Amino acid sequence: MLVGIMGNLEMLKVRLDQGLIDGNIKYVDGPLTSVNCAAALTHRLLAFSRCQTLDPKPTDVNHLVLSMEDLIRRTLGPNIYLETVLTNGLWTALCDPNQLETALLNLAINSRDAMPDGGRLTIETVNAPLDREGLAGAGEVETGDYIRPCVSDTGVGMTTDIAKRAVDPFFTTKPIGQGTALGLSMIYGFVKKSKGHMRILSRPGEGTTVQLLLPRRVGPAETQTPHTLLPATCIDQKAIVLLVEDEDAVRKILPRCLEISGMS
Fold first, then answer.
1. Averaged pLDDT, 131-143
2. Which long-range contacts does 252-259 make (Cβ < 8 Å, 24+ apart)?
3. Which residues lie closer than 8 Å to 233 by C-beta, 6 or more apart?
4. CB-side exposure of 58: number of CA atoms within 13 Å?
5. Mean pLDDT across the stretch 31-50?
6. Confidence at residue 8, expressed as pLDDT on a 0 to 100 scale
7. Are 172 and 179 in contact (CB under 8 A)?
8. Which of 17, 147, 220, 243 is 20 to 30 A from 170 via CA?
9. In this structure, how many other beta carbons lie within 10 angstroms of the beta carbon of residue 22?
């Protein structure tokens, strides 16, 4: 990624030194693409290391799955049948709903890639009261009540050794260039920071099931309201902005961005 950034910027500098103006936009687009990829990579690594900031809320997992159904169907394509098996009276989970959406979508994409000739994807939700025996192998998870969303497919499956390594960052069985090899590790980090657990059950030729354990929150789920942004016309462009930044490169560029917006 750094090569993509440095190479394009060095080429842009050479062309500007030579007085060449036309056609330089492509040398700007390249670094921007690389920076966005680096930001996404950092986001996933933070999720795996459990340093990512979460916003846990009482969440209706059934409602969340239903709200994603059309998106997941379009993601899977026409050759994969989507089935949802949602428990009536499902408990309220305590988790970051946005991160749960991302986790379920990533699992659906993994399942799609494991079924190149088509198949069935099942998303199931169940209440899971767990005692110490039921939590065998779940590490730091405490006994208690959990909600268990499961994503199952009829794909190629994995061996036991591969399933054990599936959450390792950058481990993948996909061809080079397909995916980031961070999807499962990101989900694992999110679930662990939510004080839950993740299990992968798979056999070659029999498909894969990924179970997420999320802690129960006693009480009703929150109603999610969309975030609203103030229109640009509401910004007082005559405002004086105090800029405090310890990174020299950032401190140099931000004033120029503010000046372009008409501020001082």
1. 62
2. none
3. none
4. 10
5. 60
6. 74
7. yes
8. 147
9. 6
Residues 28-56 have a mean pLDDT of: 65
Determine contact, residues 61/90, Cβ cutoff 8 Å: yes
Domain ranges for the chain = 1-48, 57-215, 230-264
Global pTM exceeds 0.70: no
Cβ atoms of 84 and 69 closer than 8 Å: yes
Residue 189 has pLDDT above 80, yes or no: yes
137 token code pair: 């192998």
Q: Are 185 and 193 in contact (CB under 8 A)?
A: no
Segment holding 33, helix H or strand E? helix 26-48
Count CA atoms closer than 13 A to 100's CA, side-chain side. Answer: 32
Residue 248, Ramachandran bin (φ over 0: left; ψ between -120 and 50: alpha; else beta): alpha
What's 57-215's CATH class?
alpha beta
Among 25, 20, 177, 250, which Cα is nearest to 8's?
25
Residue 50 — pLDDT band, cuts 50, 70, 90? very low
Cβ contacts of residue 177 below 8 Å, gap of 6+? none
The residue among 260, 110, 120 whose CA lies nearest residue 188 is 110
Residues 81 and 153: their CA atoms lie apart, in Å, by: 10
Q: How many CB atoms lie within 10 A of CB 189?
A: 25
Residues 218-246: pLDDT tens digits?
776 666 554 454 455 555 556 778 888 87
* Token reading at 135: 């939590």
Does residue 101 surpass a pLDDT of 60? yes
State the average pLDDT over residues 1-24: 78
Q: How many residues does the chain have?
A: 264
> What residue spans of 151-247 are helical by DSSP H?
160-165, 183-193
Measure Cα distances from 216 to 65, 89, 96, 148 in Å: 17, 13, 13, 10
